[in-house]
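Q: what sequence does this backbone want?
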């Protein structure tokens, strides 16, 4: 009887672990096609965008943040309205002004605007050794904070590690470090099929 119970528990554990693995894989990669498409448009590494979404919302499309951020990439209403205005598409601008939550809850639009904003931030730091870390810190805490944290140094020469150490907001430092770690791991992993 004890052997039978132990065997049943072992089988149940294997089934549960297998289900967890396959569900996690599905959950974490269900937006890969959208991420790849929008990453190409904005010349971003899709693994970096995936890492940002992982950190921001763990792939939950309907998340609303404390500062009114919406969706997978936690896009703010201000960024969405800037994107709509800059695209020149009056219909998009109208939709953004009418119901920003509905507008940003669409996963593809959210990823599109998030990628647009990441690229816009990256332009500020392009070619710097800490380009990616600075872009991520600006995405989380704003470009003015990045300027604040590099004010007393040559921002064009500061290393990624030195920049991360200078980040003066604990949650932003953790955010940037976590995304960079996940991104570097994803870069070195075998490609998905």
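A:
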């Amino acid at each position: 009887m004890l052997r039978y119970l132990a065997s049943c528990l072992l089988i149940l554990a294997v089934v549960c672990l297998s289900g967890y693995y396959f569900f996690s894989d599905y959950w974490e990669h269900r937006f890969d096609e959208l991420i790849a498409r929008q990453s190409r448009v904005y010349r971003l590494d899709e693994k970096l965008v995936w890492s940002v979404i992982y950190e921001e919302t763990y792939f939950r499309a309907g998340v609303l943040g404390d500062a009114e951020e919406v969706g997978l990439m936690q896009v703010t209403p201000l960024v969405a309205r800037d994107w709509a205005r800059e695209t020149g598409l009056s219909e998009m601008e109208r939709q953004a002004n009418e119901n920003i939550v509905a507008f940003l809850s669409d996963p593809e639009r959210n990823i599109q605007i998030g990628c647009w904003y990441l690229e816009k931030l990256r332009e500020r730091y392009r070619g710097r050794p800490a380009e990616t870390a600075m872009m991520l810190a600006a995405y989380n805490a704003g470009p003015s904070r990045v300027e604040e944290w590099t004010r007393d140094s040559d921002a064009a020469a500061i290393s990624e590690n030195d920049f991360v150490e200078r980040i003066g907001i604990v949650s932003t430092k953790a955010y940037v470090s976590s995304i960079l770690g996940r991104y570097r791991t994803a870069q070195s992993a075998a490609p998905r099929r």
